[in-house]
User: Fold these one by one.
Assistant:
Number 1:
Amino acid sequence: MKVLMLDQAKCTGCRACEYACSFEHTGKFNPLDSRIKVNEFWEDLTFVPSVCLQCERAYCEEVCPTSALTKNPETGVVELNKEKCIGCKQCIVACPWGSIKLDHTGKEVIKCDNCGGDPACIKVCYPGALSYEEVEDITNVKVQETATRLKEIAKDLVKGGA
Amino acid sequence: MRHVIVGASAAGLNAARTLESLDPQGEITILSAEEVFPYSKMSLPYLLSNKVKKRDYLFLPHPSKAKLLLGQRVVNIDVERKKVETAQNKTFSYDKLLIATGAEPYVPDMELEGSPLVLTVRNLSDMDKLKDKLNKSDVKRVILSGAGLVNSEIADALAELNIPGTFVIRSSRMLSQIVDEEGSEIIAERAIESGMELITGESITKVQEEGDHVNVFLSSGKVIQGSCVVVGKGVKPSIDFLEKTPIKCDTGILVNEYMETSVKDVYAAGDVTESIDLISDEYEIHALWPVAMEQARIAATNMAGYSWKYPKEVSRNIVNLFGEVVFTGGISKEDAYDVYKEKEGRSYHKILVRDGKLVGFIFVGGVLNPGVYLAAMKNQWDISHLLNEAIKGALSYSMFKAPTREVVNI
């Protein structure tokens, strides 16, 4: 199973992903129609991309009164079935992360669908903050990254003690 | 463990789903008073406007292991012997019991209650009756007694169908329970443009059938005609069957922070309960679909032997009315604490802030991430540095989770 992976440390805040996402889904370049959002913290000069986490037991899915939202067990994506959706918006209130949201008209519900397995956002992310990877690979990378950081801390501690 | 769940709507079924995963060996029985398979009550107005494209979509997902028994109306609970008795003369023994019987429409005027000319919106059969009246009546106009959430949603559905409606409102305005005067005004303007009529400061005294329509007598003596009367004056918890039990009730069943009632091993969730509200810190009825879902999940988790605390709830509503999204939460209708308002044409934003924390809001249009507002209010995050974003409807989750260099570096 592949998942969208975000590395906040690499995000430069260019917001190309937002435009790519909007274009992929609507044919227009409107960041308000983007499923991915780059949050800007100018005081800290830090940028944080955020996108649907495809929760295991998703709040949006639980609260949907017509079962229009369901988790696809194969892809892991929480899918929105437009045919079943009545537009009641309970899902967008239920999501504490704002990852399922309204489009630019303020009326349509939109959410990340991993572009059906070929995410547009990663293709334009030149700094490499976004990637689409197998869950197992990510786990290994994370283990190594954490170990490396802890090693540096351990080294500092040794130096401090010496 | 034998789990018995009374009621098979949002709360009952979500509790069953939770129990199925947390207590796979457990025996789960759901008793439903209705004869039809559980459906989503929240979607009923959407069924009227045909936004529910197929009737099948209304039915809730079938529990995979739990036993669902239809047509079993519970009449008493023997808390000593741990048995539930139904009107169908059956008894069910339990180790843990969940009461999720929901609420029923409140018809304040006894004269109107039970009249075939007066409809309420709660069950699937109510919607069928309303559709039938609309088809048969020579007068199309629908008389809406009360302009609360349900009747406003019905009016919105009627507007979609190009059917006129008349609100008869005892107070002076629409949605007076959740929206302030400024917000009401905009919504009313939109309602009128969509073919609704508003009669304020009046109530219905008598309803009389005449041919295929009804004559409705108002307190001022005025008589109006319609196809039927829909009463939407709120709901009351369905607790009549608890009369002979020691389970403590006020308007609804009083639950503690574990969703347990005053009787051990008896839990309650959903519209039937009263629980502590986060903002007012008092017992309140949150008759809301998502609250029912959450309460049920927590009650079921505790029935399975865990001890999860229920985070105090806040009232909130999001509703599509006459082409605009109306989103409210907390003590929305009041002007208390620090009040910030922004009105621009047909959009109206208001936030109420207490000690830097969000305690209420109204958005008539123009909110990007409603879920974040709710999260900010439920968690009482400090928004004092984000007031500008908050009033614009632009709060986003990561504004609260700003990464500091330390976090990035470690």
Number 2:
Amino acid sequence: MSNDKKVSRRDFMKGAATGLCVGAFAGMGLYSYSPWAYSRLPKVQRKLEDFGACRSVRVTNISETSWFNNAHLIGDIHEAGGLLVNQYTLNWAPFANGKGSAKGSYDEAMATIKDLIPHDLEKAWEIQKGLSLHPENPGGYSCLIEVEALDGTITKYLLDTGWSYEWMDASFKREGIDEMLKAHEIEALFISHEHWDHFWGLPVTTKYDPRIPLYVHDGFYKEGLQYIKDCKHTGDLKVIKDPVTRIESGMALLKFDVPIINRVFGETSLAFNVQGKGLVLISGCCHQGILQFADFAYTNLKYDNDRFYGIYGGLHISPFEDWDPKYDDLVISLGKWGFERIGCNHCTGHLTAKKFIEAGYPVVRGTARFRSASKDYLGNGDKIAFGC
Amino acid sequence: MDSSSFSYLESRKLVKRWNGPIPALVNTLLIAAFFYLTWWIFQDPRGMMRMYTPYVGYMVCRWLLILFIWVAYIFDFWPFKRSWLTRTHPLVKGTVLTLFSVAAMVLLIKGFFVDILGNFGIAYFNPDRLIEMGITDFYSIEYAAEAIMMFAAIASWLSPSWVVACENAPWAKLRQPARGITIVLVTFFFSMIVYFLTMHSHMAILFYPWQKYTAICPPYWEDFANTVSGNFHIAWIMCCTVVVWLYETIWERYPFNLIKTDWLRRTASFFGIIAIALALCYFLYYAQDLVWGSTIRGTRRLMAPDWRWLHVGEMAIFWLVPTLYLNFYCGNWPNKFSRPVNVCLRTLLTAVMAVVVYVIYYKTSHLFLGTQKGFSHPQQFPMIPMIWLINIFLINVWFMDGWPGWKAVPKTEAELEHVHAEVVATDVKWSSTLAKGLAVGLAAGIALYALIINVLPWIGANLTIIE
């Protein structure tokens, strides 16, 4: 090959190599965030899975006060090392061993109360209070859901079982849940996720009905699965793996694989199709985000009038009265989704409820009884009905 | 040519102590061990100090990065003498310079941001003031750390940009510490302006009601970015940070170093880096939409626009890791072709390696970092371990001369000449053949981009990284 040809080929390669990078970056810059690029995105193919319909859904808030002092709760988390620390090591009852912050151990804690649960919860909780940080802080989250079928039959379910044995037992008695459990009137217990305030009060349920069918997300850790055994649960344990699990006509359990603070993974939430009304969403904490929950239902389920009707539960926006601009994205956007009844509480945060009300959203107000702090949302003992 | 007219990093050459890949392997193993040890001591949520709260750890690793840049790039190791740098054992040097950087970082964070700015200027920089106003201790610290960290994000782009793109102009001829102080003050000043234009509104929205009298709320980017979150700015600023280092390392300052006129080359470099970063930013955002579907404003995590913008920055940092590794430990391989071809191959290679690092990180990091599996944990930032690792690279190469795999020797006259040749290059000249190649390359680049955006939806539908 002549020298000229070599130089020429070398120049060509220099130009081609430069052009390749420039062309790729130019394409990225000029096209990627353009309207043309987004017009290419495939439209969502809705599955419109028919999961039936029910006549109405009634929710009784057994307890939404998961803890009574934000500063103590978040202070303990902070002392332990922040929001990624394993919840079972935080040294909160019932998993306290008296060794202080971040030195908790499931096995050591359970050794102190294993023989007492679920039959002697008073003593078990008293022992744990003596070993734990801020023993008076725990409360719990739990609600009773009554689903009225199209033929008028009513089926009862529990969503979550709270945290403090003491507080939850009193709350159950206040709302008559203890008697319902004893009489096997409650069809199943759904644990929305493994967090302390939704799950750790499990013995309060198994005390009255150890055979109750139990639904949990498949992201539960070994401690959580062991705790179910240690609570003497004898019923059917359903570890949910599928995105959509039909429970009864007009009622489905939806599974979300989301990482959550303090080493919890995954949340399950409930969706209902209320005849003539539309979709009702009920959540424990809704870590997946309420609009992601709604969008998932929109993509996968068929419901009356193709309309979002109601929400109940924790929306996990400002649970510790913290804030982030992304939460305002929800406050700004929620109105476009057209929900007619918003029953929020618990980890929604007072500030969020306040902002919803200021935005003119149809937030169902509460009565602020039984240590619930605000009338801006549904408090302990309050009820909300969808479709009655 | 006198080596004292060059910075220490320019004046030295790192020579392998052993043949073949052994130095890289030894350093990689040591770096991995040191990473894991220091991660456990300082960051790991199961470890000793547990700074990964997350924002405290985030702030610390970002400011450490900037301090390393200031020490090595901007102050050229002042007040440490050149003779001390050349004679001291790398281990001693690394320890002293790292501790010096940490001390300066503490002084800056605690002294300037918390005590001065937080007490006499803007309350949210001082956690104690937020606590006094009723915000919980934990979030007071997190908010202040977030603000200080955001300032660091901007400075980590502008500080090296002034050295790399603007070539220290117009203060290049000043002696240290005058040059360092001047450039730090100037970049700090610009960082402050960019902070107010990009992040201040984000911080103002944190408080109820929106602090409309002190910041623009809702911010001007809301409609464009589909969020009021400042994560939109984190996205493009992080891309700027990464592109600065691409430009300095694997690109050898190509192609802007072909411009012979000083002011034009420097201006083109500075704004060219921003333009390339914006292109990368928009592409990485669009790529997520192609893989995961359109965002839903108001939701959280994977589908939220604010998180997708944040993830743009995270993905960009994943590119920086193999880029620096290739430059530091693989001799900026390949080197045997012309500069444009080398640059192109390195770019493609590091981009592919970034994807590999990304996949490995999300598949395995939860097994050893004390984190959780999942893309969008709201309290997890892959940038923290990645920048922590990059910081260790910098300690090793800048402060320790690549010990133990490498040692520093002074550059020869010819090698020092080459330093100048990188600033103003003459190895690519305009010709009709080059123009033809450029046209073909442009078409190929656009085709490559088109291929990628057409493959991404298939990847989203058929491949799962996190089971």
Number 3:
Amino acid sequence: MDRERLARFGWALGLLVLLLAPWLGIYPIFVMKALCFAIFACAFNLLLGYTGLLSFGHAAYFAAAAYSTGWLVRSAGWSPELGLVAGTLIAAAVGLVVGLIAIRRQGIYFAMVTLALAQMVYFVFLQAPFTGGEDGLQGVPRGHLFGVLSLADDRVMYYLVLAVFVAVFAAIIRIVHSPFGQVLKAIRENEPRAVSLGYAVDRYKLLAFVLSTAIAGLAGALKTLVLGFATLSDAHWSLSGEVVLMTLLGGMGTFAGPVIGAFTIIGLQNFLADRVGSWVTVIIGGIFVACVVAFRRGFVGEALAWMQRRKLERAAAGG
Amino acid sequence: MEILGIPLQAFLGQLMLGLVNGSFYAMLSLGLAVIFGLLGIVNFAHGALYMLGAYVAWLSLEKFGLNYWAALVLAPLVVGALGIVIERTLLKRLYKVDPIYGLLLTFGLALIAEGVLRDQFGVSGQQYPVPEALQGATDLGFMILPNYRAWVIVASLTVCFGTWFVIERTRLGSYLRAGTENPSLVQAFGVNVPAMVALTYAAGAGLAALAGVLAAPVIQITPLMGANLIIVVFAVVVIGGMGSILGAILTGLVLGVVEGLTKVFYPEASNIVVFVIMAIVLMLRPAGLFGKEK
């Protein structure tokens, strides 16, 4: 089977499993949570994998939306769909401000600046009067979608999450294949050349950054609706690190990579949480080290490289 | 006597605390600058190494009855040795790839260190007593100065400027700097560059551990103490500009003081003032205060 067909087959199979998941006896809250983080990782990958920008503070946008959607739906009585839209826009607005500052530095400095500004967002959520401080924002109702469909039913909620996930996934494929996406890749490969070709590189990077933070926000907003709360751990820098790990582990710069990475990490955390205690952090750290030292292309990247090698070998043997 | 409505005592007290914090910022950002300047690695594990220094001090007192002065020598040696192991087994594989991987690898290492210590000692803070010789306080007439705090400031400034002197003004320092510019040429002169690089990382790690021991009597020792500090130190580094060692020292000290004074005048902002300053500096000087524009 060639690569194209194998990929299409893989996606169809993945989608089928996801569609049937609630009927297969898989715990729906787990899949919903994993899907939210998969959206988050896809958003992050749009920036790191396709534009070459390592943001080390993506939890800030996830949390900005998680908190604002939670507050709007719970305290202001907004409907869930309006809450999702508002959360996404607020995350994008925070992203715009951070982006305007951070785009001024490159590479490793960009990572440090985004990390530091995200920490500032963390302290705002720690101290602001509406966030519940250490306790977080609790008891967010799921409400009724468009005023009719009750999301209190896990299955209804599940299909909403899945629909959003598929839409985001398709949108990212569309963005990457658009002329805009091609310019982003050119910037990733050789920024000075992109500048010399006359592209307003900073504006492209900023737009990619805001897009990525908006989608990260959508993931956070959706997570609040699913679980009914937003807490400081949504804003903590360790979550920013986890989303890097999800992307790296699955394979950055690939479409399926971040999704596989997110399911792996969330699955591992769920599985290990009550079995090994503090060792979860150690294991996650160990995976990080192993990825960077031995496994830099991630699951999908390594698989693609393996198939490429085999194809070449076969061509050599046949010719 | 009052300054802008704040009692002089409280003002000077916070100024003093700010200087103490500033000394830690200076020592840590100096270590980061040395490691980044010579190895090209952004050492996210720096906070974890600082935390390990404090734990080595605490453990050597609890388990072996070794006093503060012994810990001051022991901790940098132990953590420095760990640094050599890390450099020789892991970091050396990353010199030829994007510096982003160095950041991610050391982030993973920091998680491992944190998780292991949390499993061993829990999250509650440990206390380390102030050494006998430095207990008490001196009355300066206008304020009461705790002896230990004065010692921290003097000791870390001595270490910082000593490091600066070694790197900028001695033959060893010129080898180090030449080694980053052109390793093969320096190697041809008979200098063992890989050993020099490993020792440099060890020295940076040792500096972090030394800061950890100095901090042990004035803070709660917890597995998270380094994680919370490292991000402020990153902001300090961005503000100072990473190229300059003197820049790292001065920026660290000044930001500690600024943070201390913010606590006096507007306590709510004291956690974020460093990040606000970072944002402003980046708008005006993207390369940082002491950095060179590329």
